[in-house]
Amino acid sequence: MVISAMCHTPLALEVAPGPRLSVLFKTGPSRYRIHHRGGDLEMGDGDALFFDAGAPYRLETGYGNAVLISLEANDLSLTAAGMASQPQPHERWNGVLSRPQVVSGQHNPQMAALLASLSRVLNLLKADDNGTTAHLRLLQVDTMIRRLIVLALLPEIGEPGGGPWHHQPQLHQQVALDDLLGWMKANLAAPINLADLEQQACYSRRSLQYLFSRQFGMGPMQWLRRLRLESARERLQCPSPDDTVQGIALACGYTNPSAFSRDFSSLYGARASALLRAARLRQR
Fold this sequence. Notes:
The chain is α+β, with helices and mostly antiparallel strands. It has helices at 75-83, 109-123, 134-139, 141-153, 170-186, 194-201, 205-216, 220-237, 245-251, 257-268, 272-283, and strands at residues 2-8, 12-15, 21-27, 32-36, 39-43, 48-51, 57-61, 64-71, 101-104.
């Protein structure tokens, strides 16, 4: 395990894939945005953790403080196998631990407490006046850090019997989530609420919140709003001759033009009409 701390100005970094896993632990109010092949993830206010699973990504940040933890490829799956309430082969956890994900405590008090514990343990690594760390080795602080990361990425391990999901293999959960994401993408123009998602996925709201938070760092309705805005931006950047801002917004599920303009400007820092106008100029 290799741990690096940083206090940084705004950054825009391209991170290449590698054989090791890494965890980026952000503290404080700064916001980070991660772009990877599976989509965009955001680390909002407060403590948050990004697990990259060794995949390439682009990181955009404001001013902030963060700790980067580099791990061997099997470190977390072996730790998870040792923590499970029932004996499990470590390969069982490879599915979840092969996908980038953001974990935040912003709307989850239990997760906020866990991330606060991770922050306190990391603070133990600050060398004392004599620069000695023998007591930290005796305390096995590295094992504590691995266990806290595993609990953040796999909270079901902390539940009796392996968690509320132990009867449903991770592959089944992922297939169900992928099916739901495909349905949401195919029905962007339709009004969709949480009850619709529950009915479509055959999962409760609590379960859906858990799945989306684990994979995207946000709830299902937040992810749907982000999907609609991303789809609208793509159409604004390559419009057809008859496209208008209001028409594109409606096609992407926004029935309120004011809400669309507000959300679009908030996410992208630019007006939708400006993007459409620039695209028209390029098409001439």
